[in-house]
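Entry 14: structure prediction run for LysR family transcriptional regulator. Input pasted below.
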Amino acid sequence: MNESHIAKVDLNLLKSLRALLEERHVGRAAQKMNVTQSAMSHTLSRLRIVFDDPLFIRNAKGLEPTARALELSDKLSFILGEIDTLLTPKALELSQVHAHFRLQTHDFIVASYLSKAFHTINDEAPNIIFDVQILDNNAYEKLDSGKLDMIIGAGLKANPRFMQKRLIDESLVCLLDKHNPALNNWSTEAIFRYPHIKSSLLDDHDDPVSQYGKNMGLSERKVGLYAESLNLQLALLPNSKLIAFLPESIAEQGSKLYGLELKACPFSLPTLTIRGMWHERHQNDQVHKWVRDKISDAFLNIN
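Run finished. Output tokens:
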């Protein structure tokens, strides 16, 4: 161990570097660290000396990290996470925990599972504030950079830096208006005779209903309406001839809220596996682990 290297750096310097990497703007990084812009500029000068590199190049939008800064980014997040774990008291006093927990997920998962988990968590730890966002294409990048604490969704991809846990397997079922004529002769042929609601986020290759129709040589699937959100589909089904293919948990809500008919699909569809995913830097973090456990419990106790 080179003690002279350690002597050059204090923890606030490293935290400031992380803020600069996340915000890529001196003013916003200063605000995040609760210091003046002048103080952050001075800190950046110190960082350049410590790492013997410019670290950031100014551009029209703020700061662009150098190759050296990008190289430091992953190591920095991991080191600060480990330091935080090292300094966290063994006894977790939930009433004293103050945390901002950011996650991305699907809307139906919030409605079916997470809303209950949030209430349970806030009863025991009222100062954990959740920032819930809809899952987007940048979720993995945000999880990697520390802008997200967790992803909960279906079809999540593996990554060596990410930990994951299977939370539940959901069956896909059909949901439709109680007066839909397809119910008079419920069959695969009837389903393909009437229009469907389709998620606008799925192309035909990823959509099991479209794939089934093609594989079986059925008539081309009729799509009467596209909707990005599964919750939106519930409100669009009443008084229509549309048929939706939904996870059973959200279909049950549609049956209760709108009086819709829930039917098992007459042909086989794959189950939908919902997983939670987080960065390895949070694996042993006490607060993060406690929140993960509470979320996992909500999927086990769904009644």
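Notes: The first helix runs from residue 3 to 8. Will compare against the previous run tomorrow.
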